[in-house]
Amino acid sequence: MEVLIVRGRLHWGFSVKYPLQSAAQFPLLIPPPTTLVGALAYGCNEGVETSEDRVSVAARLLNNVKWAAFGFDETLRGLRLSLLAVADMSRNIAAPYVRKAEQALFAVQAMGRVYAAGMRIKIVYLGEGLSKLVKCGWQITRIGSKESLFEPSDVELQKVERVDAKTFATSLYVRADVARPTDPSKVTEWEVWPLAEGSFHFWRGGPQEVVKLYLPLRLEEVSYESERVIKFGEELYAL
Known about the structure:
Layout lengths: L1 E9 L2 E2 L18 H12 L12 H4 L4 E8 L3 E5 L4 E9 L12 E10 L4 E8 L6 H5 L11 E10 L1 E2 L4 E4 L3 E2 L4 E2 L5 E6 L18 E6 L1 E2 L2 E4 L3 E4 L2 E4 L1
Antiparallel strand pairs: 1-7, 1-8, 2-6, 3-7, 4-15, 5-6, 9-17, 10-16, 11-14, 12-16, 13-14, 17-18
């Protein structure tokens, strides 16, 4: 197995909404794996999101990418991640959703965002045959909405190896089925869509299952216990 590690800075933060929201658009605190694969696919395909046969270009990457995770690449002890999330009031054209009230055609909506201006982040993609995606990592320009600008500063490809360690610490979110936190008060449980083709074609009904993750509550590393610890570079993780 290989890992593609992308490091860089957010310009102002990011905006990733809960799926299927229309009016009140609350933000996800962290980009889920599907968003990370979408960001990589957007770079691979020069901004084209759907191929000629109407198959998501992100779904095509699932032949190589089996998992993706996000984490902040700097530590601000005590700062709770939830404090970075806001809902800005904005006006949007709501005509497709309005039948009678003309005054609501240009309605006020809450647009969820996570403000993390200039903060360093890291994204890891785990899978096979990732060497052909290194260029795509350098071409990631956004994470989430088109305004969520991202500037890569380093992209590297490494081999993954199994290690005998039973504990590890990371700022990345971790699957709940492969690890458990040594201090549960430092994480929150989070459910996301799996990396499967159905997650990228939600108009067909969306996936029927979810993946449970442990998400750090603060901008700092969290210690975990696991029987499935892996290593890439100096980083320990579980998969």
